[in-house]
Amino acid sequence: MKILVADDSRVMRQIVIRTLRQAGFDDHDIVEAEDGADALAKVSSESPDLVLSDWNMPNMSGIECLQAMRSSGSTIPFGFVTSEGSPEMREKAANAGALFLIAKPFDEDTFRDALDGVIA
Amino acid sequence: MSTAHTGGIDTGERRRSGDGRPVITDLIDEPTVQSIVEDAWVALVGEDEVLIPLAGEPIGDVVSAWVDVVGPWTGSVVLTTGRQTAAELTRALLAESSPELLEDEDVADAFGEIANVVGGNVKAALPGSSALSLPEVGEAPAVRNPEDVVRLDVLWRGQPLSISAQGALPPLPVPHPPPGGQSPHENGASL
Predict the structure, then answer these.
(1) Which stretches of chain B score pLDDT less than 50?
(2) Minimal Cα–Cα distance from A16 to chain B, Å?
């Protein structure tokens, strides 16, 4: 399985990848994207099986990336990993077609709860 | 919003938020901010990393990271610490991926991300709908209204660190007392 991790913070991408490993999802290919526009391009070029994306990013936000994906007919599972964990943001995420929203700060249990059933 | 409360007992709250513009102390208290920061610390910095709620000696060479919140309350959530401490924090976040020589860019990224996580959770605790900016790192925005600040001073690994939610707007002008009357409150003068 190929997982695309999009976050403008390189440090946070590393923390997300480390937490995936700690949660037991350690035998997957990881592709990194540094903003929403990069993520959207890599959705096409890399054909990931899952996108884990930050919300607030320069160039293109995570929600804009998700909306662009869905508009183009992509049904690739998409989840947010963001500091924006309010009920309002969760609703916006779900309405745009996100499967889940992991709020920062998180730990491996949060990842396991959100990703069990999504990652084979 | 109604401003019908024009007379009678001054509650203090009216003095702070009489025009419908709240200050941060109306919306969030210090224990809530402390809890947000502690959760961020455990998850990002490390499970065994403790924050001691004590103010340290002021230090000269500091760096700040902050995010802006724009909404019913508009201001910044700011973390400030010594440059060396910010570098240590970066190494803690990067853990085994920490390079031998840290670049300024790494420190800005890591310290900014802590501010982002703390700020995002402060924003989520505020009423109403707000927008959050991307993190910035450098010299902290000035405090515009000392009454519109919730500040926490802690020690991490013995080094001082402050976390504050501070309003971006200057205090409102104090209304003039009615002609021939006394000011409704003695301590209502702007600081």
Answers:
(1) 1-17, 183-191
(2) 10
Assess whether pLDDT exceeds 70 at residue A67.
Answer: yes
| Residues B113, A9: C-beta atoms closer than 8 Å | yes
Distances (CA, A) of A21 to A28, B26, B43: 9, 42, 15
Sequence ranges of the domains in chain A: 2-115
Q: Given this model, what pLDDT does residue B91 score? A: 96
Q: Looking at the complex, does the CB of residue A83 fall below 8 Å from at least one CB of chain B?
A: yes
Please give the CATH number for the structural domain made up of B22-167: 3.40.1550.10
The 8-class DSSP code of residue A40 comes to H
DSSP state of B47: T
Q: Where do we find the tokens 């920061």? A: B37
CATH classification of A2-115, choosing from 2.170.8.10, 3.40.50.2300, 3.30.950.10, 3.10.28.20? Answer: 3.40.50.2300
User: Residue B1's pLDDT is what?
Assistant: 39
Contact residues, chain A, for B109 at CB < 8 Å: 9-11
Q: Which residues of A touch B51 (CB under 8 A)?
A: none
Provide, as residue numbers in chain B, all residues whose Cβ is less than 8 Å from the Cβ of A14: 94, 97
> How large is the ipTM?
0.92
B110-B116-B119-B120 Cα dihedral, nearest 10 degrees: -140
Answer whether B43 sits within 8 Å of A105, measured CB to CB: yes
Closest by Cβ to B94, choosing from A14, A56, A57 = A14
